[in-house]
Amino acid sequence: MADYDVIVIGGGPGGYVCAIRCAQLGLKTACVEGRETLGGTCLNVGCIPSKALLHASHSLHEAEHNFAAMGLKGKSPSVDWKQMLAYKDDVIGQNTKGIEFLFKKNKVDWLKGWGSIPAAGQVKVGDEVHNAKHIVIASGSEPSSLPGAEVDEKIVVTSTGALALPKVPKKMVVIGAGVIGLEMGSVYKRLGAEVTVIEFLDEITPGMDKDIQKTFQRTLKKQGMEFIMGAAVQKVDKTKTKAKVHYKLRKDDSEAMIDADVVLVATGRRPFVDGLGLEGAGVKMTERGQIATDHWQTSVPGIWAIGDVTEGPMLAHKAEDEGMAVAESIAGQAGHVNYDVIPGVIYTSPEVASVGKTEQELKEAGVDYKVGKFSFMGNGRAKAVFMGDGFVKILADRATDRVLGVHIMGPAAGELIHEACVLMEYGGSAEDLARTCHAHPTFSEAVREAALACGDGAIHA
Ligand code: NAI
Q: Residue 420's domain spans which residues?
């Protein structure tokens, strides 16, 4: 048993960042994590491993489709799946050990085990009960289940199983055209699987700007991904080695079935609060099963909550920002998160990135806006690397020119978006961006051109 200023429950991006910041601000801090390694879903079975597989499969795509055009002749590489998984596991190991190192460096104690809260001010890990002036719940989320689809992580898998399949399937059916479905679907498509995505809605990537949704889906179709839209999956029947996915089309209620070797269920995630003892501790929940918070404080004084267990987008960087803000609030500083400027990125190829309002949101809110759009076809660097597909779209207030939203599909979109984030954080205008010198030849010139298109016009359009 030990006494702490802060005990953080959960060692994912929200929790470990919060713990490190607390320690940096002079608070005696521990972090409870039950997995063998730190880093939570993101580092172990989410963002980081999927990026390793996206990189590997994109490299294969380059070799198969673009090398010859550049005069790089020879046989395309074949896939050694075991080695690709070993590379992915090595990337995970490097990152999770990195967090362990940072804990030691910052003197954060790792309490190994699953934590619960027997009472405010107390955290139980295994048989030990520790005292804490502040408890931060950062226990993350888990894949939500789909009625009628029993996950075995072999034939019917979540993102976790999809990152460790024994072999590349011949036919994969992905349920849900959200971020996970499209990222993992892209990986297996590029590795040679036939991939069909079944989506309940009529558009992919719910919540994204409509222009992006349309162009992105067209591009994925061109890459060979198939889509069954407006279809609700009813159930998944399994044999020993295969599955049959039954779905109903919304437009006419007709029913159909599709075969698969592997079915990826990617229909969202839900807060993970099992075993925390929240009810006993008196922590109130929202109707949607999230921990109710006000500036990250729960209904019980001294208990805070951040990241996927709370409201808002389930994004690692949103959780990290909240983690830092809570640490600062506990230390008596002014913790702050600007929820209007949280970027979202889909790491397919091309990447998709977005920040701020979509065009449809501005329309619904009755905002008078203007649009500056620029295609990557007009960007010399993008054309040089076969990445002319896609565009940058900037939405700015018509009267003040203030940038309200930026949506990008194209090369390095996940990096480019941050120039928009900084601009928006400072309340900048499209003209501010347009008057900022951008190095040539870079992809980011396309962002500037879209800003110019909000004014007197882009040069290369
Ligand atoms: P999602 O919420 O992004 O998409 C789920 C999709 O499944 C929706 O389009 C929904 O309409 C569809 N759906 C639901 N039930 C269905 C049914 N019965 N039949 C057909 N379609 C159905 O969820 P996803 O992709 O599982 O991701 C979960 C969370 O993880 C998200 O909040 C996402 O932001 C986060 N994430 C973020 C990543 C990133 O930032 N790059 C990467 C991976 C996950």
A: 344-453
